[in-house]
Amino acid sequence: MNGPWKQTDEAEQGNTTDHAEAMTPSAAAPEAVGVSGTTDADEAVRGSATSSPAPTSRRERRRSEGHHRPGDPELEPQRSRSTYQSTGAVPRLPQPTPGENAEREAAYAVPEPPRTDVGGGLREAPGELHVHGPLRRFWERIKLVPLIILVLCVIAAVVAGIMRQGDLNAALSGRQAAVPPIAPGAVASAEAYPSFAECQPAPEPIPAEQPWQGAAFAESEAIFTENNVSGGERVIEGQDGWVFWSDYQWKNFSQALGRRTLSQEEMDAWYTHYKGVADELEAEGIPIVILIAPGKWDVYRDKLPTWTKDIQGSTTFDYLRAAHPDLPIIDVRDGVRAARDKAETYEPLNSHWTNYGGWAAWKTAAPCIQSLGEGFRHVEAPAITSVKNEMSNSEFAQDGYSEAPKDATTPVWAEKPSPMTVIGKDGQEKQTTSDYPADMLEAPLTTHTEHAQTDLTALIYRDSFGTALAPSWQASFATTLQRSHGISSDGSTPDIVAEAKQHKPDIVILEFTERYLHFVPGQPAQ
Prior knowledge:
The protein has helices at 16-22, 40-51, 58-64, 102-107, 136-142, 145-176, 216-226, 252-257, 264-283, 296-299, 316-323, 333-338, 355-370, 466-476, 496-503, and strands at residues 235-237, 243-245, 288-293, 329-331, 384-390, 408-413, 419-423, 429-433, 445-449, 457-462, 479-484, 507-513. The chain is α/β, with parallel strands linked by helices. The protein folds into two domains: 16-146, no CATH class; 198-518, no CATH class. Strand 10 (457-462), helix 14 (466-476) and strand 11 (479-484) form a beta-alpha-beta unit. Helix 13 crosses helix 14. The protein is globular, with a radius of gyration of 45 Å. The two termini are 72 Å apart.
């Protein structure tokens, strides 16, 4: 075979038994030479070739016809590692002539191809392709690609499994590490609670046993999962027809149970941001009040589903007050709960408090605002004579709760509200009274109230809960600058300090609902 290749395949490999017989002296003796000039060995080759199957492929056919050229991509056979020739060409040996000695004839005998039709067996698989020269190094690398890909897939699967398990462990550890730096069961004293210590109860001690901490976590999680709170439903129906947002909105129900709380890192970020704002405003002589409107589930825990009874733990609000008593937070929860003795402060089919609930909150907050200084001592909730029920607006109508009972409780004012001017974001003015329920969608807006309790200006950052608070703070302050607080899932917050320096108010009020404690300044929401 010519060229830089040497191959042993079906056409070149001989049957060892027949080949041995062809090499015997008797088979190549001069007297065995016929008139045609052929030897017995030649006849043996022809006989063997006759018994082999006819070439079927174009490559085999052309090779049998003598057209094989080394390097022909169609004809070049697969090469066996055992017959690879690194350099040089295989010389073509001359054919023996009749009458030469047996040794020479045997040396030049053509080996008989193997029998592949015996017993119907399979043809021998081709050998491995070998390349040399400039392409050898490339081939030696590229032929390992499938193996490398397989190894990478295995590694990726292992790493993915480790990461998934790591995520689960981290989530569990994070949940168990969410307790702020206050010992469970410890009681915060009044000395340790300087902000508004005289105007509101001290923080409740954090119970030592928590359903979402330690060994109890797994059982609580099983109950939570069994009731499919995270299964895509927007609402959760509680007792007596009361309805609550599910985790569809900012992990609301998980917050209600203490399943979702701020981790230590998140709480530190929250504290650092708002303590920094309070310190900067204090340097400007401007006090700030953080008024957290409690979630319905924090005031009406008795209306939560019965299956939550044993898995209601401390909330972020609880931990935040206990861990950072120096924050100027006004906790109105107790006052809003107590007001239930007279009328409902929330509606069964709405997540917001009622107008009466907002009034009860301001009545609770007013003593803390009075403690800020002489100019605030007349701040109070407007006097009321009674509470009336009005038609309710179901927040969950699209979830199948479309009825509109008279569950909206509204205070009846003891005195006629004062005249007030409202300047909308478009600059247009309208005349109304101080009990006007200014909506968040109107913000930014400015109000000027005649005969207000004080002549002070309040810069107020608020959300939709501010609608029920508006009649009270509009009666308390001669001027209000009402803005959306802008707290959102991307971690953004308003630049309170910059705007306070611009408008120079007498007080800054930051009001937001409790479920906004899911967000951390500067950090995207989970």
